[in-house]
Design a protein that fits this description.
single chain; Cytochrome p450
Length: about 400
């Protein structure tokens, strides 16, 4: 019976500070653990990897795979299957630069460093500050707004919208989510409407930002519809923001809990890219993803019926001892670190290249100031969301 309540216990806010013992319990009970609500929970590395790459596993919400549903709102391409997913993702990545290169994102390194320096400067005379509110939250919002071409006076609007949208996307046992979903839909409509209107102002008048590039696509066959433009730009904000906030904040928390590793990174800053990869494995920003099998599917000898909600516990897979040596140890020099921090397969996180650059820049700028820093509260208060897990506040004293 205990294994049938694992998803409920993982989703329980009381376990947000440390869900990892529950993930160990999941792996021990698995690979496939049926839940009381009818879903299946999977947290072993090799099974999660196989399912993320299996074309029979749909990323689309059940309302779209169920022909009896009256749901008509088109989800973002992160929740679509190929060929539609491939078409929209390819079109949307074009403004970033040549195929398979960061392009525009890589060119923003200087701008990201400048924004980071401005935030650090504002904290220099503070004896205490909140890593989330004063640094990790405003950094990616500012970066993504500059990337999209949002006027600086409107940047604050996006903090409220992203909070509500992320809260509406949580995964957990079935419960009444009517109000949460309604608020999320309204936030999506408001954000999408704003971005489409801003893009329309640039139609025929290119301004060099990503919104301008999308609305002025020269090939009519490749242009996004108004609905596709709205959903895709919203997705870019969420993928380019929420994961980065959690990655930076989890990184600071992890390093302050491990002063030896913090000192090592201060002495050897060239280790930062590898340290960020280890953070993505050890304390990832994304913990779970839902998939729906389009046919009965066998996983390690267990048949999962078509249409079942399958929750892939990515964070559990990234700590599977059958895949990683000493998985519960933070090791910034870890070799062969093929984690699930941004997922895997065709739905690999859209904002991953931007998040990596921001995390490296942010942690690199903070490291010189963290030698005398102490956590004010440990564990800190966490966000409600179990899927996109990270502290809501992280107060530190210098």
């Amino acid at each position: 019976m205990a294994s049938e309540t694992l998803l409920a216990r993982i989703s329980d806010y009381a376990n947000r500070p440390n869900p990892y013992p529950l993930y160990a319990e999941l792996r021990e009970a698995g690979p496939v653990v049926r839940q009381a609500d009818g879903s299946c929970l999977i947290g072993t590395y090799h099974e999660v990897a196989a399912l993320l790459h299996d074309p029979r596993m749909s990323a689309e919400p059940r309302s779209r795979t169920d022909s009896s549903s009256e749901e008509t709102r088109r989800p973002p391409f992160l929740r679509l299957d190929d060929p539609e997913h491939h078409r929209l993702r390819t079109l949307t990545m074009r403004p970033f630069g040549p195929p398979h290169t960061p392009g525009r994102i890589d060119a923003m390194r200087g701008e990201i460093a400048h924004i980071t320096a401005e935030l650090i400067d504002a904290l220099r005379d503070r004896e205490q500050f909140d890593v989330v509110d004063d640094f990790a939250y405003p950094l990616p919002i500012t970066v993504i707004c500059r990337l999209m071409g949002v006027p600086r006076e409107d940047e604050a609007l996006f903090q409220g919208w992203t909070d509500v949208i992320v809260a509406s996307a949580d995964i957990g046992p079935e419960e009444d989510t009517t109000e949460r979903d309604k608020a999320g839909l309204q936030a999506r409509q408001e954000m999408g409407g704003y971005l489409v209107n801003l893009a329309e102002q640039r139609r025929g008048r290119p301004t060099g930002d990503m919104l301008s590039d999308l609305i002025n696509e020269p090939d009519p066959a490749l242009r996004l519809t108004v609905e596709e433009l709205a959903e895709t730009t919203i997705l870019l904000f969420i993928a380019g923001h929420e994961t980065t906030v959690n990655l930076i904040t989890n990184g600071v928390l992890t390093l302050l809990r491990r002063p030896d590793e913090l000192d090592r990174l201060r002495r050897e800053p060239d280790l930062l890219p590898r340290a960020v990869e280890e953070l993505l494995r050890y304390e990832p920003p994304v913990h779970m993803r839902e998939r729906i099998p389009l046919a009965d599917i066998d996983v390690a000898g267990t048949t999962i019926p078509k249409g079942t909600s399958v929750i892939l516990a990515l964070a559990s897979g990234s700590r599977d001892p059958k895949r990683f040596h000493e998985p519960d140890r933070f090791d910034p020099t870890r070799p062969d670190n093929e984690h699930f921090g941004f997922g895997s397969g065709i739905h690999l996180c859209y904002g991953a290249p931007l998040a990596r650059i921001e995390a490296e820049t942010a942690l690199g700028a903070l490291l010189p100031h963290l030698g005398t820093a102490r956590l004010v509260q440990d564990p800190p208060p966490y966000r409600q969301n179990a899927m996109l897990r990270g502290p809501r506040h992280l107060p530190i004293r210098l």
